[in-house]
Design goal:
heterodimer, A: 318 residues, alpha/beta, Rossmann fold, Alpha-Beta Plaits, 2 domains, six-stranded mixed β-sheet, 11 helices, 14 strands, 36% helix, B: 342 residues, mainly alpha, 73% helix
Chain lengths: 318, 342
């Protein structure tokens, strides 16, 4: 196991009586892509701000690259690139000028800055448009320029706060591929906050689910679904034909008698069965034997969608 | 006529960019300097600055014109200020257009307000604040750089204008200023810089407090209007209400006069006009009421520059104090603000 590069210990942030981040413990390892997943207002951005030392924690500690963010934010910000949500640029300056400005704030000489900027602009595919004013840039171009700017300081960690909101699907795809590529090639640790689960699922090695200031689950997607759906790891959907739907009352009774079935929901012709094992064959047989006319039957594996729904829409967190 | 070859071959262009690349400095510039440089170029390029610059330059030339066309009649026999002929360029008027110093007291606040009203909140609204704060710089660099950049722009502008008036005046009337006149003008310009810096800091304070640039601009203009129009009216009302009877003992009348004078000195524009008129009119001997006994036996001669400076010292200190208070408030406000994206 590689060393941890971000360490949060009992991190708490209160705004008056409102607790934005509550006793958060999290460890992110070097070189991984970590997804911070949660609905809006869950405290993701606050946590990120505390990692950068932009906000002081009420209690607890943050260490990024073995440096305490609250005590030495400058040192942390030297090593961490941060792309805020909906990043803005000086609209009447060109992409070049914006990029060179940030590069020089990071202590690069004008010559170095120009050289690096050219490489990075090529990398994010903006070299042709970089001399245009950023006021004319589209949202996706701004995000790509933002990524170039984050990379110009040669960071060890990059933190992306909702980087894909407002970009079209193709742009998102390209952007995410770029992030994964970077992480793999240059060994940069990426922390990626989002409320969009599909994107997180696509790129992240590990995911932390964040609700109301608490990290309620953490791990890769497989282990998360195992944790969550330990008692009913399989969901099977079945549809019966409409003509025989009158018989479905009897059918649902029969299905409930099946071994391994945990839950059953019926909606007209549709059945949703939560099972402890893959008992598709038994279900199919039961339906066929009941004469209900099986239309379709499929088994679904748990993705982040289900994990997400379970946490946010169900139980105590709804 | 020379024949100019307008076609560029690609080699020469490549070479040109290569030399440009080579010319770039290989030494890193301190981040604070980078910030100040950027702020200055932002200010100078902005439309609001160009527009104000045009207005100020025009009015400056206008007042110069009126003072020059009247300067011939300005010299009277036994005038204690006859030795300070040159200073009349800044104060003389025929009544149709105000003098240069009055223009500065009127337009200076506008200049200060316009340079600062969107200092912090526009960064926030454009979403560049959190981006800047994520760079390895101290947080106060930003507000210090904003202040320093605007102050630099103001100083350069006012010194350039002041010296321009002096230069044009010298060309036309053909008289060079004496050393004392020169220093009086320099002090006048320095006091103007402080005055404009006060309004600049006030507007920076509003830009920290209010999220919308329009709100902070209007708040700044409201304060400016209050002091230029309503404040005088309020003072007049108080004056009428508390006026002692004309048979009251002189001590009471004098006390009342002094109280009224000190009340008007709450306004920064009073402080400025007192300070500048003392600097530009060496015959001004006191800024408060004088009794007959004090005036008796006084020779109507101009004050030396050191004495004039002593006379306006409280006013200048007051202006600097106001400036510092505004800056301190905006500094604290900014340091306590939480940096969030948009």
């Amino acid at each position: 196991m590689s060393e941890s590069i971000i360490e949060l210990v009992d991190l708490t942030k209160k705004y008056g009586s409102f607790t934005a981040v509550d006793q958060l413990n999290l460890e992110i390892r070097k070189g991984e892509v970590f997804g911070l997943l949660g609905p809006n207002g869950a405290g993701k951005s606050t946590t990120i701000l505390m990692m950068l030392g932009l906000t002081e924690p009420t209690s607890g500690s943050v260490h990024v690259c073995q440096t305490n963010s609250a005590e030495n934010p400058i040192e942390v910000k030297r090593k961490v690139g941060y792309l805020p949500e909906d990043v803005g640029f000086y609209p009447d300056r060109s992409g070049w000028e914006n990029l060179l400005f940030i590069a020089q704030l990071n202590g690069l000489s004008p010559k170095e800055a120009t050289e690096r900027a050219e490489v990075l602009l090529k990398r994010v595919g903006l070299l042709d448009q970089a001399s245009k004013k950023t006021g004319t840039f589209s949202r996706g171009m701004r995000q790509r320029l933002g990524l170039a700017e984050v990379l110009i300081k040669n960071p060890e960690v990059i933190i992306l706060d909702e980087p894909t909101s407002g970009i079209d699907p193709k742009g998102v795809q390209e952007f995410l591929e770029l992030i994964v590529q970077l992480s793999k090639e240059e060994g940069i640790t990426v922390l990626f906050s989002s409320h969009n689960l599909h994107q997180v699922q696509q790129v992240c090695d590990r995911v932390g689910i964040f609700v109301r200031g608490k990290l309620i689950a953490e791990g890769n997607i497989q282990s998360l679904s195992q944790q969550l759906f330990a008692n009913e790891p399989f969901t099977i959907y079945a549809e019966v034909s409409a003509a025989q739907s009158a018989k479905s009352a009897g059918l649902s009774y029969q299905l409930q008698q099946l071994d391994g079935l945990i839950s059953l929901q019926q909606n007209g012709q549709h059945f949703q069965l939560g099972c402890s094992a893959n008992i598709s064959d038994k279900i199919a047989r039961t339906i066929v034997e009941s004469g209900a006319g099986l239309q379709s039957l499929y088994k679904r594996e748990h993705g982040l969608d289900d994990i997400y729904n379970r946490y946010f829409q169900g139980g105590d967190y709804a | 006529m020379h024949n100019v070859n307008l076609t560029l071959d690609s080699d020469s262009v490549v070479e040109a960019t290569a030399t440009k690349q080579r010319k770039l400095k290989t030494k890193a510039i301190h981040p604070f300097r980078v910030l100040v440089q950027k702020e200055i170029s932002d200010q100078v390029r902005s439309w609001k600055f160009i527009i104000l610059l045009c207005i100020i330059a025009l009015t400056c030339l206008g007042s110069l014109y009126t003072s020059l066309s009247n300067i011939g009649h300005a010299i009277k026999p036994n005038d204690p200020e006859a030795d300070f002929f040159f200073l009349k360029l800044f104060t003389l008027t025929d009544g149709s257009l105000p003098s240069y110093s009055v223009f500065i007291s009127f337009l200076g606040p506008l200049l200060g307000l316009s340079l600062g009203f969107d200092a912090i909140n526009s960064e926030r609204n454009r979403g560049t604040l959190s981006r800047l704060m994520a760079q390895p710089i101290h947080r106060d660099y930003l507000i210090n750089a904003k202040f320093l950049a605007a102050l630099t722009v103001i100083s350069v502008l006012l010194f350039a204008l002041g010296f321009l008036v002096m230069g044009i005046g010298m060309l036309i009337i053909g008289l060079p200023p004496t050393a004392e006149e020169f220093w009086r003008v320099v002090f006048f310009i320095i006091i103007s810089v402080f005055y404009v810096a006060f309004w600049l800091n006030l507007s920076i304070l509003f830009s920290v407090k209010f999220r919308q640039t329009a709100t902070s601009a209007l708040a700044g203009i409201a304060v400016w209007l209050f002091f230029t129009i309503f404040f005088v009216m309020i003072i007049n009302l108080i004056n009428k209400a508390t006026m002692p009877s004309q048979y009251a003992p002189p001590a009471v009348i004098l006390g009342h006069e002094n109280l009224m004078l000190n009340l008007t000195r709450i306004s920064p524009s009073t402080l400025f006009s007192e300070a500048t008129s003392t600097m530009l009119m060496p015959s001004v001997r006191s800024l408060g009421p004088l009794t007959m006994q004090q005036v008796q036996g006084a020779i109507p001669s101009p004050l030396p520059i050191g004495q004039s400076l002593l006379l306006v010292w409280p006013q200048v200190t007051g202006l600097i104090a106001l400036t510092v208070v505004c800056f301190a408030l905006s500094y604290i406000g900014f340091m306590r603000k939480e940096i969030r994206s948009r």
